[in-house]
Amino acid sequence: MLLSLVSHTKLNFPSGSSIEKYGDTFFLFGDDCPYFAILDAAYRVQEKVIITHSFKERIPKPIKPDWEACTIIDDYIWVFGSGSLLEKRDDILIIHPASSNFVVHKNHSFYNELRKREFTKEMNIEAATMVKEELWLFNRANLSQPNHLIRCSIHNTHINIIDIKEIPDITFQEHVLGISGAAYDSEHDFLWITASAEATENSYDDGAILGSVLYRLDHPATDFNMRRAQKIDLPELDTRLEKQKIESVCIAHALKENYQLLLVADNDIGDTELFHINVQL
């Protein structure tokens, strides 16, 4: 793969954590942001849609909803709370992108069912994508737990767990990587994954940002094995990607063997940066 950094944009938007494309626009979410932003094709904020009127800019950490992962399901954008705090982070934001109307769906039963499985020390869902007919969620690793893939089926707003798989450690310069974003290209059967290394032992506290990686995995539903994924250490691409915590990836454009990817970075002090990456396979 040949990669190049097309553009780097700093946004006046707090704590960017997840992004999804719909038509010619991008929907951007922040883990402690009381609104979501709609961006145009040039990544300019066109609209801010208020989710809660209780706060103007950043929601305090102990009560933030922690919107960390999003994907399109049946023409709606679903945004998942991380589940890292019981009930406070168990909501799912469901948006009709054509109108920007939304509902906050209280889905404690799904998150509690995950907790009952006791597959991990702490819940921390940070990536979501639809792979064929399944919803794939990724529970993020830290220094005390591995990454996990959670495969689910969906009927209306009801989520059923199909399987939970532990992912063997993936690393960046010997540091454990936590999966932070995922985007599936159904036409070519490729899964793009972002992962970042952070010096923290739990899902609540932030740690020093060490760097991030981009992966491409062919035919993920047939053989989900990160060992065979193509890996790109993002700091090697451009110095502006050094010490960045990449939180999300979406496919801006895909044409034959050329991809335009949009990566979202959050520095844990409230700033958001976008990196437009060109990938030639």
Measured as a percent range, the helix fraction is: under 10%
In which order are the strands of the major sheet placed? Answer: 14-15-16-17-18
Give the low-pLDDT segments. Answer: none
End-to-end Cα distance, whole Å, is: 5 Å
Question: Hey, roughly how much beta strand do the residues contain?
Answer: over 45%
Total of domains = 1
CATH architecture: 6 Propeller
CATH class value: Mainly Beta
Total count of helical runs of at least 4 residues = 1
The succession of helices and strands, N to C, reads EEEEEEEEEHEEEEEEEEEEEE
Oligomer: single chain
Mean pLDDT: 94
Q: Work out the radius of gyration.
A: 17 Å
Shape: globular
Give the biggest beta sheet: 5 strands, antiparallel
For this structure, the CATH topology is Neuraminidase
Structural class: mainly beta
CATH superfamily: Apyrase
Walk me through what this model shows.
This protein has 281 residues and is mainly beta. Helix content is 4%, strand content 56%. It is built from one helix and 21 strands. It has a five-stranded antiparallel β-sheet, with no helix packed on it. Strands 1-21-20-19 form a four-stranded antiparallel β-sheet, with no helix packed on it. A four-stranded antiparallel β-sheet has the order 2-3-4-5, with no helix packed on it.
